[in-house]
Amino acid sequence: KITKTASFRERLVGYPNFDESDDWRIRSETTLEAARAASWALRASYLFTRDNLPAPGFEKDDATTSVSLVWKR
Questions:
Q1: Which single residue of 35, 43, 53, 57 could bond 5 by disulfide (Cβ 3.0 to 4.6 Å)?
Q2: SS3 46
Q3: Secondary element (H or E) of residue 27
Q4: What local confidence, expressed as pLDDT, does residue 14 receive?
Q5: Global pTM value
């Protein structure tokens, strides 16, 4: 919690490949959420993924930024 109505979250996950040590993946998601009303919140997210040995024709890194309106019960 940053304030009473805002929160920050960071999640980092690693996916190793024990058969091929160079074939690993990571995923990092950063989220900031702020309440706008009793049941509504605004969420901004940044997702970064890295595939160290991607399939041919694909990049190693990918990033996505999103903004959402979230309804909470």
A1: 35
A2: strand
A3: strand 25-35
A4: 97
A5: 0.82
User: How far is the C-alpha of 39 from the C-alpha of 7, rounded, in Å?
Assistant: 15
Specify the residue for token string 């909470």. Answer: 72
- 32's tokens: 């900031």
Residue 54 DSSP one-character state: P
pLDDT value at position 7? 95
Mean pLDDT by 10 residues, the chain (73 residues): 93 96 96 92 97 96 97 85
The single-letter code of the amino acid at 41 is: A
In terms of residues, how long is the chain?
73
Q: Which amino acid is at 57?
A: G
User: Which residue do the tokens 């690993």 mark?
Assistant: 24
Looking at the DSSP bridge assignments, the partners of residue 68 are: 43
3-state DSSP assignment of residue 10: strand
Q: What single-letter amino acid sits at 1?
A: K
Structure tokens of 31?
């989220």
